[in-house]
Amino acid sequence: MPDIPELDLSGDHLSAILEDEDNPWLTLGIMDRIEDPALLHEWGRMLDLQTRLLGPREVEWLRAKGFGRTGCSIIEPGSGDGHYGSFLARNFPDARIHGLEANDNLVRRFDTDRCPENYAIDICKVGSDPLPAVLSAGFDQCFLRFVLQHVSDPRPLIKAVHDAMPQGGKIYIIEEDHSFFSTEPYWLPYSLATDAWSRVYAAGGSDGAIGRKLPKLVSEAGFEVTDFDVVLRNNVEMGNDFLDLFTQAARVLHHTSPDVLTVEELRNIQDEFRFDQDRHGTSFVATYPQILLCATKR
Ligand SMILES: C[S@@+](CC[C@H](N)C(=O)[O-])C[C@H]1O[C@@H](n2cnc3c(N)ncnc32)[C@H](O)[C@@H]1O
Q: Which of 9, 106, 220, 270 has its CA 20 to 30 A from that of 156?
């Protein structure tokens, strides 16, 4: 595999990127301009699975940290197809949540019929597009889930959110950090899946290790970090849901870069996980690392 050069975002180099219309700062890693129907379908399944399997615990955490109080107006940049935003809106019925999504192919998959009344999505690339008129009265909180890992430079996006917020406004970020992938003892399909995850992210420009960078990123933008948790979800407590999550991730990664994660490798991962169904929880411990951060505008 060829070496992937590290992105130089310093000084003159950053200015050059900012000025180059063909290479804007806001490229979206492996999610950049996705439009292939098969890939959009796999992403749809992934976003649904991540919502169902991870969402309930995330909501508990958010509630404990003051998210979505009565009358609150919340923006959700990177809302994708609105699966998660609809779920959040159902769990926080007294708040109003505004999804903002850069990719219109994903917004078109938004199911308006099953959407709660306190949720809607607008097409908007936050950081470079103006916020939609519906937000002219401002907003109190911002929610970002699995977005920053796909943004080539998250700093302008976080700064744009910071500057548009009132003092005391809160930002909530849920991310991953693949540096915490771990298994004991060695578990073949898990190692194959996590290795493929790293390779496809490196080739596509997404950052799977963004989680531990968050406190520095938001502090530099002018927020004060009030909560930071590293949560290691794992196969023992998640059961076969854990296998489904990693299998679906492998499917997305294959459709993203079939040359980096080949169809043979995908079959191998799927077959090996299938073989371990129902017995893995007593044979292996493996992690899925989530990072949760809450910060307040100073
Ligand atoms: C992995 S999806 C996450 C979807 C959703 N937040 C969830 O947790 O299910 C990330 C999304 O962020 C979008 N995105 C990235 N940067 C954005 C920006 N600056 N403004 C709006 N959308 C953005 C991408 O187009 C992509 O649809």
A: 106
